[in-house]
Design a protein that fits this description.
The complex is a heterodimer of chains A (about 625) and B (about 120). Chain A has about 625 residues and is an alpha+beta fold. Chain A folds into 5 domains: about 5-140, Four Helix Bundle (Hemerythrin (Met), subunit A); about 150-205, no CATH class; about 250-305; about 310-485, Heat Shock Protein 90 (2-Layer Sandwich), CATH 3.30.565; about 490-635, OB fold (Dihydrolipoamide Acetyltransferase, E2P) (Beta Barrel). Helices cover about 45% and strands about 20% of the residues of chain A. Chain B is of the alpha/beta class and about 120 residues long. Chain B has 5 helices and 5 strands. Chain B has helices at about 10-25, 35-45, 60-70, 90-95, 110-120; strands spanning about 5-10, 30, 50-55, 80-85, 100-105. In chain B, helix 1 (about 10-25) packs across helix 5 (about 110-120) and helix 2 runs parallel beside helix 3 (about 60-70). The longest helix of chain B is centred in the N-terminal third of the chain and has 13 residues, at about 10-25. Classes of the chains: A alpha+beta (about 625), B alpha/beta (about 120). At the A-B interface, helix 1, helix 2, helix 6, strand 1 and helix 9 of A face helix 1, strand 2, helix 2, helix 4 and strand 5 of B. Strand 1 of chain A pairs antiparallel with strand 5 of chain B.
């Protein structure tokens, strides 16, 4: 018999990572003066579990460190040690170290034993300090695996345990055991004579019918080769937890397949239109059911990829705490909407830009306590991280009540960098200047936010996942950074529109409505055609002009205007007609061809032809939005 | 029929490891992730051997042992507590609760099979 321990490593890494996250979370919220016993138990269990697992799987670097950590936590939960902020800090640093070791093991890199030694010493120093302060003898207890027990205990154990009997140690226990007759060193023992217990245990199995069924279940699964973890009996999986760990690649390939299924389904639908005669009705009926099922399958598959925003947000209490301490600032972090869900692939790419923005808010936004007091603000600055879901997108905002952006400074800096500016620039355009490469208004570059990675990278990162960043700011009051992201990157609901002989797809979430205007709704303002509807003027953007397509309808009253809103603009897109609504699988054009302005990607239609998905944001950037003043005057 | 063993541990990796080890010894295995889930299982099924971790959320190993000993059909079923500390206080607690024995983590899979074989006679 040999069990390949490697097969459990992945699970161990994942669960340890979770324990570390949990440990950090609890440590961050722990009240140092009067800690909640359950909190202490929770951190203790986390350290304990990592220690247990690492011991079994041979990750010794983790075992040693978690052992010392566990001892400290055990004292704390037993009330033998009183937590102090330095102890919590040391525990947090130890958590970081454990994470680093875990990653080293995961990536099969060399272990930094020096760092572990330093970490162990730091922990021991805290324990020793505490020991001398409290002079508590019971501290010893937490450390020993095999603490010698008093003589009466030993005798009792000899009576109860079987390990001292020669026969047993010969049969069962390895050599090392034979030489040490004491129970403790065997690593296991029995409290009562075995025979009676075992005999009873096995001879009196009271099996119910239900039980028999389950045992059959187990038997049947056992007959299959069970080399992998996945072949655990179904019963076990259901009972032990309602969730299942699955490789992301498997889910991705499922999502892809369902996407292809959507295409096949629309091919079938198209083909069925050419079928006549007997059975057509039945075919149509079946196709409708297929349509519904495929759509549900798609929704389910997509939902598997969704994770709550807390996966991103949970790291920030620590980031804020460390940064504020480093900068001698006082910052309170408020997190809202962490249950809003977002595609896993987006989460991974969101961490860096969000971290940068939060660091920025604290470094450049929140003022020093004295300065805040002088400005009549509360001494403690506030940074709010908020996620909200709306339609097909998610809004993430980072709000601070700090100094706000300085218009003059930004304009000066822009001029220095040779960026074109003019005095009448609206605020929103001025704020956007900070996204230019190499832009930093901080007079001193700190080692925190000014590390060569500027806001331009933040913007690029967010745009690379189909998102946008907007800024609102008021000098002296604070700033708000808003990130708007699609919920998923793989599939979108769209309206198919025709222009000339081409079909384009407009994301449904950005469409307000589609109308055929009457002539008195069309006005010409400053040489541009505008549509008066919904008590506002909508600039008209003829898609045939933008895409340079011949033979399209150019008279708005004979065509269709699709009203579209984007993050900060609205416009009407002039197209020939509406073809239908469809869910499309997005294929990146950049991957397969090259970026095309105005086009977000392509998709394969039911008839096998390729249609472009419009990038309405980039279309919007070519439109001149009538400013509010003009509207009011005309209205 | 091969003996049916219930393993109780909150750590998925250890649970899997113990489960695979015991299955390789041709035992039937069911796993639970804490004492409470284990107790619920035991109220419905009869296992021939319960192997439980001590430190778990919701219900720890000692409490599980105490509760199981209160069920008629589990009065004499062997129960071993897996623990990282085999201190005398832990042992006296285990004995008082009515556990059959203890086994220190980390352990070698082979040793686990040997102990299981011995416990099940």
């Amino acid at each position: 018999m040999s069990i390949d321990m490697n097969q459990f490593h992945g699970v161990f890494f994942d669960e340890s990572e979770e324990h570390l996250v949990e440990m950090e979370e609890v440590l961050m919220t722990l009240s140092v003066e009067s800690p909640n016993p359950e909190d202490l138990n929770c951190i203790f269990r986390a350290a304990h579990s990592i220690k247990g697992g690492s011991g079994i799987f041979g990750f010794d670097a983790l075992t040693g460190l978690t052992h010392v950590m566990e001892s400290l936590l055990d004292q704390a939960r037993k009330g033998q040690t009183h937590l102090t902020t330095p102890i919590v800090n040391t525990l947090l640093t130890t958590g970081d170290l454990l994470r680093a070791i875990l990653n080293s093991y995961r990536n099969k890199e060399d272990i930094d034993w020096a760092a572990i030694e330093a970490g162990t010493q730091a922990l021991n120093a805290v324990i020793d300090d505490n020991k001398s302060a409290q002079n508590n003898e019971e501290n010893e207890q937490g450390f020993g695996f095999f603490t010698p027990i008093d003589s009466s205990e030993v005798n009792e154990n000899v009576d109860f345990g079987l390990f001292d009997e020669n026969e047993f140690s010969k049969d069962v226990i390895d050599d090392e055991v034979k030489s040490t007759p004491s129970n403790e060193s065997n690593g296991f023992g029995f409290f009562e004579p075995l025979e009676s217990v075992c005999d009873q245990g096995i001879r009196t199995p009271v099996l119910s019918e239900h039980d028999a069924v389950i045992q059959d279940d187990l038997d049947s699964t056992k007959t299959k080769p069970s080399n992998t973890v996945k072949s655990n009996s179904k019963k076990t999986v259901v009972k032990e937890s309602n969730s299942l760990r699955v490789d992301t690649q498997k889910i991705d390939s499922l999502v892809n397949l369902v996407g292809e299924l959507v295409i096949t389904q629309s091919m079938l639908k198209l083909a069925s239109e050419d079928v006549f005669g007997h059975g057509t009705e039945k075919l149509q009926e079946a196709l409708e059911i297929l349509d519904r099922n495929v759509r549900q399958a798609q929704e389910t598959a997509m939902s598997m990829r969704m994770l709550p925003m807390s996966f991103v947000f949970n790291r920030f209490p620590r980031v804020v705490r460390d940064l504020a301490a480093k900068l001698d600032k006082e910052v309170e972090l408020v997190i809202e909407g962490s249950s809003a869900e977002i595609d896993k692939s987006l989460i991974e790419k969101l961490v860096d830009p969000l971290t940068h923005l939060v660091r920025n808010s604290i470094d450049h936004g929140i003022e020093l306590p004295a300065k805040r007091l002088a400005a009549g603000k509360p001494q403690v600055g506030k940074v709010t991280l908020k996620a909200e879901q709306g339609g097909g997108s998610i809004l993430i905002s980072i709000v601070d009540d700090g100094a706000g952006l300085d218009k003059q400074k930004i304009l000066e800096k822009a001029k220095q960098n040779g960026i074109e500016t003019h005095d009448k620039m609206p605020d929103s355009d001025i704020w956007k200047l900070i996204f230019a490469a190499g832009f930093s208004t901080a007079t001193e570059v700190t080692d925190l936010s000014g590390r060569g990675v500027g806001m331009d990278v933040v913007k690029q990162n967010i745009e690379s996942i189909g998102g946008q960043v907007e800024i609102e700011s008021e000098l002296g009051k604070g700033s708000r950074f808003i990130i708007r992201l699609p919920l998923t990157l793989a599939i979108l609901d769209g309206i198919c529109v025709s222009v000339g002989d081409q079909v384009f797809i407009i994301p449904l979430t950005q469409i307000v409505e589609s109308i055929q205007p009457v002539s008195n709704q069309i006005k010409t303002l400053v040489n541009e055609q505008m549509l008066w509807i919904r008590d506002a003027y909508w600039p008209i953007l003829p898609l045939y002009e933008y895409m340079n397509i011949q033979g399209a309808e150019s008279d708005p009253t004979q065509a269709i205007v699709v009203l579209i809103t984007t993050a900060n603009k609205r416009f009407g897109l002039l197209v020939d007609g509406l073809v239908g609504q469809q869910q499309v699988v997005i294929k990146s054009l950049e991957h397969h061809y090259k970026p095309v302005p105005g086009v977000a990607g392509a998709t394969i239609m039911g008839d096998g032809s390729v249609a472009f998905i419009l990038d309405v944001e980039s279309l919007a950037s070519t439109v001149n939005q009538p400013s509010v003043d003009i509207e009011v005057k005309i209205a | 029929m091969n003996p049916h063993i219930l393993i109780v541990d909150d750590s998925p990796s250890i649970r899997q490891m113990v489960e695979m080890t015991l299955k390789s010894g041709d035992y039937q295995v069911t796993a639970a992730e804490d004492g409470q889930a284990a107790l619920e299982l035991c109220q419905q099924h009869q296992y021939q051997f319960v192997l439980t971790d001590q430190n778990m959320p919701k219900m720890d190993g000692i409490t599980l042992v105490k509760s199981l000993r209160g069920i008629d059909s589990y009065k004499r079923t062997p129960i071993i507590i897996l623990t990282t500390e085999a201190s005398d206080s832990m042992k006296s607690q285990g004995r008082e609760a009515g556990a059959t024995g203890w086994m220190v983590k980390p352990f070698d899979p082979n040793k686990l099979l040997q102990v299981t074989a011995k416990v099940l006679g």
